[in-house]
Amino acid sequence: MKQHDLYLALALMFTSILGFSQDNYNLDLEDFDPTTQKLPTGWFIWGNYEGVTTELDSNNNRIAKITSDKNGTFGSVVRSIPANFTGDCIELRGKIKFENVKSYVGLIMRIDGIPTKKHLAFENMYSQQIQGTRDWQEYSIKLPLPKHARTIYVGGILGTEGTAWFDDFEVFVDGKNIEILEQTPKTELTKLDEKEFLKALDEASTAIKTDTEEKLSSSLDALIQSLSNKKIVALGESTHGTAEYYKLRSLITKRLIEEKGFNMIILENPYDAVERLDDQLNEQDLDSLMRKNLFPIYQTEEMKSFLEWYAANSDKFDLDFKGCDDSFYISYELLEEELSDVADTETQKILKKIKKQFDKEGKNFRKEIKLNSSNYDLILELEKHLKATNASTSEVSDLLFNIKNTYSNYKLLQDRKPIQSRDQVMADRISYFAKNPDAKIIVWAHDAHISNYVIADGEIGIMGRDLKSEYGNDYHAVGFSTLEGSYSYMDEKYINTSPNYTQILKQGSIKNSNELLWEELLAKNGNAFYMDLSALNKELNNKVILGSTKLIGYNLEDETSVYYVPFLDLYDTLIFLKETSATSPLFN
């Protein structure tokens, strides 16, 4: 079974299991009554193999055993542990013996939050492709441990064909065994001392004055100063279609450029499309350029206003405008243009090979993997040749890096290695530009991407987490949040499946929630303000406070738009506006 198939299967198999006391998780499998139990106490089965049992080894130790059968696809013996621990890393160790394994065998660990369908992290060693026959050996897997984890699942797994035995499981948090580790209390938002919280919030927040443009700008003076020495400032948005967010992001961006020397804007949009837009910004009609090169969610009066400012000031401040999303559609055109004056025969020969590959279309997923893996290899060949002949330029290097990033996952799939998530690819692109010592970068992306650590699904928030890990305090995430009002959205579920960005924007209203939201509590502090979350956490003695917040993507809000998180840890600064309105579409 492929890893992504297994991931989806496990998502449907959440089982509620009673936990043991802190010092007895029965990870050694010894608590077992053969007269009443099929598996040791606390352990259960994932998958569809009939042959999931236990047996005694030669030393009279109880071990778990999984035997494949023709009607099944995988089997797993698993135990749940309440996630009452805090730390950066959780590690599962365990011993495995196996015979005649044709697919794979390994340890498995999954971390769930609330709701349970939003997994926070997952690993099953599929990518290692451990096969054949081997005697007892200890293995280990590690995952980041989010503060908002609720349940940790650990165990062993067997893919198609073979027999495997498992024993001596151990779980460690930051190197300490959980059997002796002190548990960490977590506070629910619904049980929070509201008076204490609002007092701390008042101390850590600054009002935003919206009466006039001048007052609005001056009320952000302290924030602008606090961002002045950062390498990367990420300006988020809890919806992609909120007019006030764009107004504030534009204002902050302009001031950071004009007053603090920032010189690059990176947008959550395909890299190659932003390159084309930037190249032609002063040559073609702006509406037409936006229609061709920007995701429909950005085809608004608010974005147009900012791009008009950018076009008028890019030369004055020596600015660059970049994209951080995958580039599938015009990358070759840009590459061909950049290398059109290179007369070297070998360069043109490789370019012809690349064009031939780019013009092909995969007939199915397997052929697409092979085709795009070949694209990746050709780009590497071209890059190596250009370096060897001193024919590369910074523009060509940037373009080749971003094309490689686009096709890297196909190469990883071809080599049967773990793929990178969209967030990881975006982080790689931003980091690439940040390695320029003169670069001071402003990122425009959704709150879910800029977050300082993973919010859900082992995916959302990886971009911000990776950048925070790499750049520390030089990376600063500014989240934007609201309680009520309207927003723009589009019906298309996937945003990058076509180069024709012609979807029509619609308007929706933020729904009332059946549960207490962080935004409701924040609204009691005022209509518009920003808060220093580090200072707020200090005021609250760094309590772990868990509650629900809304993150609405490109589409209409639904039940999946609510996330259960330690909200105060997601960003470095949060801008809160109680009521907001939808952006104004350029096209109807």
Set down the secondary structure blueprint:
Layout: H1 3-11, E1 43-47, E2 51-56, E3 62-67, E4 75-82, E5 89-101, E6 105-112, E7 119-123, E8 132-144, E9 151-158, E10 163-173, E11 176-177, E12 187-188, H2 194-204, E13 205-207, H3 213-218, H4 221-227, E14 232-235, H5 243-260, E15 264-270, H6 271-279, H7 286-293, H8 301-313, E16 320-325, H9 331-338, H10 345-359, H11 365-388, H12 394-414, H13 422-434, E17 441-444, H14 447-450, H15 462-471, E18 475-489, E19 506-509, H16 518-523, E20 528-532, H17 533-539, E21 545-550, E22 562-565, E23 573-580
Parallel strand pairs: 12-21, 14-17, 14-18, 15-16, 15-17, 18-23
Antiparallel strand pairs: 1-4, 2-3, 3-10, 4-9, 5-8, 5-10, 6-7, 6-9, 10-11, 13-20, 18-19, 20-23, 21-22
Helix pairs in contact: 2-17, 6-7, 9-12, 10-11, 11-12, 12-13, 13-15
